[in-house]
Amino acid sequence: MANRFSGTKNYLYLGSLGTEVTTGALSGEKFFKITAKGASSAFPAESVVNDVVFNKPAITLTSGDKAKPIELTKLGFVTNVPQSASKEKYENTVQTDVAKSYEEGDKPEISGTIDGYFTDDANADLILKRFFRLIDDNGAGQKTYQPIETGVLHFFLGRRETTTVGQVEVMEYMPAIIDSLTVDKPMNGPQTFNFAYTVIGNEMPSITRRTITA
Amino acid sequence: MAVLEIRAGANPADPAGVQLWFGEEAIENAKVIEAYNDHGKKRVIAEIIWEEKLGRKEVEKSDKRKGDNLRAGSIVEQMEGTAKK
Predict the structure, then answer these.
(1) Do B37 and A214 touch (CB under 8 A)?
(2) Tens-digit pLDDT profile for residues A78-87
């Protein structure tokens, strides 16, 4: 019987891209983001630049191959990650059809929200600084003014996380921009945090189904 | 220095094929029951069958009470003493 995925023990991670590797073997059992493919690339044949690839067995780069390691950090403020996907449809009904006829678009649009509680989690700053100018003051004379930032955040959503050899792990890669933020401050109770994201197609979002091996 | 290693078998996705090695020597009296790999941090639950090397009779005489499978330690003796009072 097929597995039924639950929310328990599955988390939302934020990936940070490390220094680009251009030669030798990729180090560590983790995701890498392909940044260039050589003529006889060691990366999977069907993969393209911006795809993610899990480095097990270890990949030894060939001439022209480049990749950046992705370090995943569990986001400490998240409660729920609703997501929706849609596609355009084009009507092409003619008078002889018995019902309305449509053609399906080939490019899905994926977006959703991330709900949680407002905390001092360092990763929450990455979202806050998209909308607010953050100022850090250590009280001893050091004050840092941060500009409002833009850019893609590399989210990984665990759909089925496992470490058991033989089982299949399902991880969704959702590179996204943040297009709205709602922060609540009720009279009583925790301050809630909610932002909307839109997945960016040219960063190659995907779902990896990986068999855990020893 | 030789270290204990967890190595994959012919089919790395088969937990039954996972092996324990000490340096360049496979530990043959270890049976891996469960195997885990957390992004390179490997862990196994294995049954080590010591009888093959130590001898069953010797173990029972020196370290075990017959019948109850308990080790004859000081804690067991103290509990019996309290019950008599």
Answers:
(1) yes
(2) 999 999 999 9
Domain ranges of chain A: 12-91+101-211
Token representation of residue A161: 């996380």
Which residue in B has a C-alpha nearest to residue A166's C-alpha?
Answer: B13
Quote the minimal CA–CA distance from B45 to chain A in Å.
11
Nearest C-alpha of chain A: how many angstroms from B1?
Answer: 23
Estimate to the nearest angstrom the gap between the alpha carbon of A65 and the chain centroid: 23
ipTM above 0.85, yes or no: no
Q: Distance between CA atoms of A200 and B83, rounded to whole angstroms?
A: 73
Closest-CA residue of B relative to A71 is B39
CA distance A9 to chain B (A): 14
**Which residues of A are less than 8 Å from B15 in CB distance?**
164-166, 214
Nearest CA in chain B to A54: B39
- A153-160 and A12-17 beta bridge pairing: antiparallel
Chain B hits for A214, Cβ within 8 Å: 6-9, 12, 15, 17-18, 35, 37, 42
pLDDT tens readout for residues A2-53: 888 888 889 999 999 999 999 999 999 999 999 999 999 999 999 999 999 9
Say which amino acid occupies A98.
V
Q: Name residue, tokens 């022209």.
A: A64
